[in-house]
Structure formats: structure tokens, C-alpha cells
Amino acid sequence: MKVKMAAQTLSSSTADAIQFLRSLEESTFKNSEATERFIRVIDRIFDFLNTRNPFGKGFKKPLYRDNIKEVENMIKPLVDYLLSLTDIKGIPIHSTPRKTFVIGFTVAVKSILNLAKELFIVTDYKYLLTYKFSQDQLEIFFSKIRQRFGHNNNPNVLEFRTAMKQLCVKNLITSSYAANCVALDNSCYDSIFVIRWKKRKSEEIIEDDDEEIPDFFSFENEVLTLIFLKIIFYTILVDL
């Protein structure tokens, strides 16, 4: 299942489009209120489970210590709505073979809320971004592993270990466009180990205005200057 496709289809913009076409009295969208409501419920639960901005509002607002009860009161009716869905025979969806999405959303919402309450007790976190609890990071990481080997979808242990080292040190490989998930923030492209060059202190740099500059650094000699620039360019290419 392509999660990104489902998220784009079951979105508020789709619900707005259905509402607009129904207001125009389009015959194909007659009695589509239930479909519109279902899409809005799924979209709001998606927003709650994918908060990424500390300054978000509405269902995209992160969990704070003082708003958990408020958010819980907003989300609970949505979960109750999913649990109340029935099929054409009147059997609850969560009791049929198609129960996966209902149970999945219910468990995810309840787990996030209970986990947030526990974390706010044992830690000094100011807020929680629910997107950090999703498995998108893992999906994108293994997508990069597959991208690393091109058409080879069955790497051996040595190849996999090499790819792991490269991604841990310098994470420049992007995930496939056809992957199940898309990166919603820059954290998916961060490396685990950060390499920083030690900066020299300003007092260690000795500047001597009286020192004579060699001729090959002089821009008066155009030939030597061109050679010098080519050497620098070649050195940079070798380092890359």
C-alpha cells in the first residue's frame, strides 16, 4: 500500500471538492455527505499522527503538558466514529476482515496519548511531535538502502554493511520516488555521525604585511596564475 497516495486522496481538499460539487447539485455527488465526513475524519487523524511543527494549530498542534486533555477530547469522537462504521450487512467494520485500518488508527491514537502522558511525567519535555513516532524514518532508510544497490535487490552482508556505513557517516542518498513514504522533514537526510573540522583560532593565524609575495601568486603573471588555479581545481576534484 502506498501511504502517500492514501494520504493525498483522503485529504481535506478532496472533502472540500466533494462538498463543492454537491453544492452545484451534480447528480453523481448526490447524498455524498457520509463520504465527505469519512474523508475528513481520516484526514484529521492523519494530521494528529503527523504533527511536525511546534507552532501548528488545530489537529496539527503538537502535544503539550497542558493540552493533552483538550486533544484527547478532540480525537476521541473521531475514533468512536471509526468504531461505529458498519458494512452493508450491519456488521461493525472492526469485526470484519477489513478491520485493519480501524484497529490500526485506534491503537495508534491511544498509544500516542498514553505514551505522551507517561513521557511528560518522567521527562521534562515541553512538547511532543507525533511524526517522530511514525515508521516513515525506517521506511525511507531502507528505501535508500535499496537505492544504493540499484537493480540489485538482494545484497549480501558485506554490501549491506557498506551501505549502512555510508548512510551513517554521510547521508546523501535520496529515497526512491516510488517508495511507500516521502520525507516530510529534513531529519530523514541527517547522518548519525557528524564530521566537523576543527577551526583554527584567529590568534594562530600570522599575518605579515612585510613578507614578500612570490611571483607565482602575483596576478601580474597571467600564465602562472592560470596554472595555479588549475592546480587548485584539480585538487578539489581529487578530494571529491
From TrEMBL:
It holds the Pfam family TNP-like_RNaseH_C. This is THAP domain-containing protein 9. It comes from Schizaphis graminum. Residues 131-165 form the Transposable element P transposase-like RNase H C-terminal domain. It comes from the Eukaryota. The lineage of its organism: Eukaryota, Metazoa, Ecdysozoa, Arthropoda, Hexapoda. Residues 1-62 form the Transposable element P transposase-like GTP-binding insertion domain. InterPro entries: TNP-like_GBD (IPR048366), TNP-like_RNaseH_C (IPR048367).
